[in-house]
Amino acid sequence: MTIIPPIPLTGAYFQGVYSPLLDRVIPSAGLTISFALAAWGLKAVDTSGALAGAAVTFLLCMAAGPGALIAVLVVFALTYFTTRFGHQVKERLGTAEGSEGRSARQVLANLAIAGMCAIPVMWYPNSARWVLIGVAAALAEAAADTVSSEVGQVFSRHPVLITNFRRVPSGTNGAVTIVGSVMGILSATLITYVCVAVNLIDQRWFFLTVTCATLGMILDSLLGATLEKPDRLGNNSVNFTSTGFAAFLAILISFIVRVN
Q1: Model confidence at 11: pLDDT above 70
Q2: Which of 219, 226, 222, 227 is nearest to 243 (CA)?
Q3: Vertex 81: Cα angle to 49 and 133 (nearest 5)
Q4: What angle do CA 74, 80, 84 make, to 5 degrees?
Q5: What is the pLDDT of residues 180-217, one digit of tens each?
Q6: Phi and psi at residue 135, in whole multiples of 5°?
Q7: 183 near 148, Cβ under 8 Å?
Q8: Which of 48, 135, 149, 219 lies 20 to 30 Å from 241, alpha-carbon distance?
């Protein structure tokens, strides 16, 4: 009978397994706390949103290194400026974001999937090549969705409902515009480029990531037009589902490509 030797839970074993993680704790904490305080100071998030954002960004930094933080910073910059762009127009439409900033629920709806995809890398570094494309796709979709909505409200007076292409008032759930859609795709492209530049994903997954993020943005509009109602799905649930779809699709397709 073969006897499996017990794992030697000694100090040396602990150091060999967890030392790389421990080395990242202080830098990751410092970077994410600074980012959260800056976002809170800009009133982009409220206190709960800052805490939630710091938690997710910390996970991303621990798992994927500072490159992941750079990607999140670009997502933040895009959403921050486009949300405030054309504020007077959005106030007239009744779609302007509140002055207190985004809450924890809103932050997690956009970032939680990226954080969840990154967690396995902390303990199984070899899983990075399988799951980090999900991080990139989720971040790209979150940027695309926000930018397309915020820009579309300002530049297009006649949005159409994605399910039947009939004109609807600006701010209607499921409404899309040409300008907004193009800007959303460009935003997804930018975030994916950043992810490639910081070595979060390999460049061969560039077009796949952009495509999955774009499909997630389209799904967001479809869910908004069909299911986004107080007694069904709220906006946060729609955002969470759309980023999850983009991440899952990117991971699945890349897995199939690798296996074949």
Answers
A1: no
A2: 219
A3: 70
A4: 150
A5: 999 999 999 999 999 999 999 999 999 999 999 999 99
A6: -60, -50
A7: yes
A8: 48
Give the span between the Cα atoms of 84 and 95, in whole angstroms.
11
Q: Are 201 and 195 in contact (CB under 8 A)?
A: yes
Structure tokens, 37? 């305080």
User: How large is the greatest C-alpha to C-alpha distance in the chain, in angstroms?
Assistant: 78
Reply yes or no on whether the pLDDT at 15 is more than 50.
no
User: Rounded to whole angstroms, how far apart are CA atoms 139 and 148?
Assistant: 14
Express each pLDDT in 37-59 by its tens digit: 999 999 899 999 999 999 999 99
Q: Is the pLDDT reported for residue 6 higher than 50?
A: no
Of 148, 166, 164, which Cα lies nearest the Cα of 156? Answer: 148
Amino acid at 232: R
- Quick check: 218 pLDDT over 80? yes
**CA separation for the pair 107, 236 (Å, rounded):** 9
Supply 154's token pair. 């300002």
Residues found in the chain: 260
